[in-house]
Amino acid sequence: MLRKKHKDLGTEDLSPLINSSGLSENEEEQSWNLGSRHYGKEIVLNNYEVQKKHCVLAERVSVSVQGEMTFSEAHTHESDCKVPMYLHLMEVSLEKIFPELPTCDIVNQLKDNLLKMRNVQEEHPSSAPQFKEAQLLKNLIACHHQCIFECLDQILQHVNTTKTIFTLLDWVQHKYLSTELLGHPELWDEALQAVDLRLLTDWISQAEKKLLAIVQKDLFTSLRRILQNESSREVCVSVDEAFIRLHVDVIQCLNAVLQRAKETSQTLKHNIQKLCWEGLQDFVEKYVNFEKKNLKEETQLGTSNRMYLFKISKSCNELKRYALSIAADHKGLDTGNIISALNELEGIALQHLMERPIHLAQIIVAKYFKGDDKEMLHLNDIEQLLNDLPKDQDLQKTIVSKAYHQIVVLYFQHLVQIKYMKLVKRWTDVGERVAHDAEFLHSFFSVLNPSVEKWNLILLKVREVLECSDIESLKITVGVILQDCSSTGTKHLHALLCWNGVLSRQEIKEVLEANQDVNPCYLSQIMHTPWYSCLLCC
Prior knowledge:
Radius of gyration: 40 Å
Mean pLDDT: 74
Region (Disordered): 1-26
């Protein structure tokens, strides 16, 4: 392995000094192999031998300078001519004890290579006092730091997977800089002054750049494969697999690399979040277009599968939730496009999914007001239809809520379209009967989902409107309807006010105008439509 030589560790030409050093050939050979662990032969020295070898250089320096002089005295005596030689011997010795990287199979031997470099570094604290006394510790650390990153550069050139680069980054940031190695208390003060931090920062920058390129490629490849598998998969292999496979695969794919980045550094996690977001955006765009095309074809053929529609709704719901979780952790991400596309697809799927329940609801309500089904017993058909769907709490709540909402809207619509006096003859107390039905409907749908929204509020307000003889109280009741029942009751509110013929045209106008601030757009439409006057005269 080629090594870079740095002039600050020696002089322009050290050969004369080395040749006249006063060391025998045997001693010079020993100095050149200081601390060697013989990695090629896999010889492991015990602690005593390791410490002994790391004292060799210090001893050689002391002996070669002046017999029994102290290490400090020897260094001072001939520092002008001897120190460069010791620095050169130190550099060569470190190069010899560093592991020789194999020309191939570096990835498979990555853990062994990192362990060897760690073992070399762990030996320095024991010999630190001798080198520190000779004022050579900084040089030792700087030389070792250079060798470490030359090894890491070679390894980085050969790795091409996210796993191996994450392993390298983790070793550099969490092991090499730890108190066990470079941050050891015996080395830290000198290390702060000696090491070239550019070697560290430049290497991390190169590693992260290579990592991001591989992550981007891997993410797009994996997400494309997930979509391809989805297009070739049968609609319902099994209930569980059909409804969770897509979004689980996508989330696991993105989370795997996000979690690994989080364990390495927050900055790296931030950059990888951007890549994951780009991958998710691309996937959602392709997925939405793919499913919209399928839904259009199935609608034309009349072959829509309820389980397939349920699965689309489930996937959209989970992907939206996941997208929002990523965006919440990264303020620069815009969720607009992803959420809008998924909402559109989910809406189409739910619309098709609700066609049959809505059709049943229309039949049930029509029969009820005709008197053919006095207790709305056919609601059990809707219950059976909803129970056949998979037990997904969130999605089931949505479907039950939509069915409940549609029943209430249809009920209220049929109610005001029938002459009031006709219903009085059938039910006697119309307000009480409507309130009873409102409670019954909520009880029925609460069994299907206990947390379902109370869509029956508009029906409960019918009795208040019919029985209210005080205009001021009626204004308050209408205000509540406009505020809380905008999706169920406002469309037919005007018809309800004139339904029993008690209120005059002027009184109805006064009640509506008093609530213009509550729902101004809706009331403006009522007051300016030609059929408003006709309804008042009914």
